[in-house]
Amino acid sequence: MFALAVVRRAAGARGRPRKDWLPFDDARSITRALGLRGVQEWRLYRRQNKHSMARIPANPDVVYRMSGYVDFYDWLNYERHRPRPVISGEHSKPVSIHLNFEGAHLIQQIIDAHVSSAGESERLELFAMPSESRFTFLYRKATGTTSNRSNNNINKEPLEVDDSDWVPLSLRVSAGTSRVQFGPTPRCSDHPLVCVDLHGNRLFVLPPGFGQFKYPFSPSRANQAKFGVSIEELPAVLQTWWESDSAAAMKKSRDRWALESIEHQRSRQWMDYVLRMKKILYEPLGLCLAFSQNSKLTPYNSFLSGIPVIHQLLQRKECGGFLADLDKRSQTNLPFAQRTKIGFAIFGVRKADSPDIAGVFCFPGKTLLEHGILGSEQNIGRPTFSVFPPFCEPRAFAYRCKKSQDAMAWQPEFYIDLSESTPDKLHLAREKLRTILSRDSTGTLAIN
User: Fold this and answer.
1) What is the set of domains in the chain, with CATH numbers?
2) What pLDDT is stored for residue 415 in this prediction?
């Protein structure tokens, strides 16, 4: 019985060897020619024609997950009820994006258009918060020669000293066609809430203290007349709130808002680590840090002067090293080779007897590709790998592992020691970070 189970496991879930499946492109061409209009029709057709479709899996999302599978819309070639956006850039296939990210992109476009047309005294500056935050944006009225530092338009200059006049802004998005409703927002009682109806192209700005924050908000005719605003009116409404006395009492710096707006302990530790890197390394080098609002669907979670970067605080392994997981935050169905388009991976490590950061590894994406960690057309890559800082003591079986031996040979070159905070040590750390970041293959990372 045990031997039969082993054979079936090696052959696949239904006893058919995995090598018997058709290539992804051939299988998709056959399914697209069937003219099916949904997942249910596909399941029924596959069940009724299991002999003629024996070499095409009923679950292509599992079998072809690493071979180019996107979703059933692409598998059967039928249109969505409402077109979804695609991630531009190096991704070659469409990917579903969370609605809040789509709404945030719309708000960003509105503010960018306002900045380009408004005068110096009326411009708004928008800063995107990470997905772990309970706010979507921070914003303020731009002063002097400040410029927009959003994820789409990132300033490469150092931050100003006066950075304590930011206020939060939350966002709710609905894409319903028959009934539009926005979820409860009990945390928005002290700042404005922007509700975006993507289907009807409507905007609603709910003021602080709105009585229905504990219940779903429905844009009735009365609410449309009371809270509805046009695209042109939105910047003026936000600016009016920013100048109010209520907003003046809650203005804080971006770093303070970023730390206070996160409630989960692990996420707060991660944010504390990122802000420390910003203070002691990035700002002295003139690098601007921004967060990715779509970090749950992409491998990177931040931007460093426009370059996608993954910041991660690593946990210790039994072998004595630390575990880095590049695929931890990515939940899309794109192949791993397409999901790992990152510029740099910056991993923080801590000693067992101290909560402070002992050092960081800064791996360029090109280096991870050379060592087979990032995916390519020839190599699928390794989502997880071990990291060995100089202060760790690997156990005996780590030395017997060839991958661990190779890692301990090439990784020390990219380690930056932060165990001492003296000016001389920090200067050496910044110079080493400057050297590593200068290996950016795109040539777009400007360092002072």
Assistant:
1) 2-76 (no CATH), 99-254 (no CATH), 264-437 (3.40.1350.140)
2) 94
